[in-house]
Amino acid sequence: MSVFGRLRLIKKLSALSALLVAAPVLLAGCGSGKEEGVVYFRFANSPTALSLVRIAEELGYWDNAGVRPEYVGPATAVPAVQLLDQGKIDIATGMFNNDIDGKVKGFKFTAIASSMLDLPKEPHMAYFTKAGSNITKDNLKALEGKTVGVNGFNSCVDLVIKRYLKNNGVDVARVNFLELKPELIAPAIERGEVDLGVFHPPLVGVLLSKPDKFTQAFTSYDDWGPLGGQAPYVASNAWLQKNPQAAREFVGIIAKTANWANAHPKESAEIAGKTTGYPVEQTTNWHYAPNALLDKASLQLWWDLVEEVGTPLPGSEHLKPEDIATNAFNPYAKTADLLETQDHNTVILDQEQNDRVLKTKLVDIQGVEE
């Protein structure tokens, strides 16, 4: 057994022991299971979705922290930013176009930490056909009259492929887009019901491990390059106002986890498989923005994307990234301002760059100095 495997086994046994010790208390109905003095954030936990929050838990980063996740179940059909505004969750992650729409609707939340970027070998999304299909990167017109499987509309899986096809001469109106759950798209490809499917990690790795059944035709990197489809971590303004120091610690842990995952792609992919239930030897993980720092360029691309192939809400054209996102809670930020691009964020920082929450116009926090 590998060292990493032994560590996982030890952690499992430790967790089981802790559960057995705690069981009588839980059965007796005494105590909430929360540690006094720790700030908890309610986080929508989708079982098959990758999350730096869950990777951090596997690494033990929350164990001795002053802030910890409280998983409240998978996200519903209600947008996460609406749940944040309603006070039903405290922190969430999702595509930035939903954040733009939420801000137009007046929801009170703020983006505080970045997420994935795109690399050729670690893409945000990958597009697969059945092995032997004539649909290739150089023959995209073959998709006209065919069916593309996506797990949601008006999101990265829908908008990016539409723009990529449009920019490569495909009449998108002649392509049928079918909404299916992610785990149902691959079987539909095998049965011939779907001709091309859109996939995120960890499923990308699972399909790559089956070249006799599936072929990767192209990836999201072919459309938007290294900017990637930022799905930043967003928090309700009410929670941020009440817990600014906990928010700062949260972002610091997310940054630490992102940097670890980038430096350990194999191990982080194994954790991705473990936390999502897919075979650990087949899964892949994302590449993350170093230091969890937010930038304007990878957020701004969403306005362009929605305008080109989506349906922007009236009023969204008056917003800009700085109206939604800030680096004020990031201990590795020198200022609250967003970076211009991720080109300015290539060095992994192991020392904090500030000693407090920084001033931001997006959240009114008493006692924060300029």
UniProtKB/TrEMBL annotation:
Residues 1-28 form the signal peptide. It holds the Pfam family NMT1. It is found in: Periplasm. Gene3D superfamilies: Periplasmic binding protein-like II. Residues 55-267 form the SsuA/THI5-like domain. Its main location: periplasm. Keywords: Signal. Belongs to the bacterial solute-binding protein SsuA/TauA family. This is ABC transporter substrate-binding protein. It comes from Nocardia aurea.
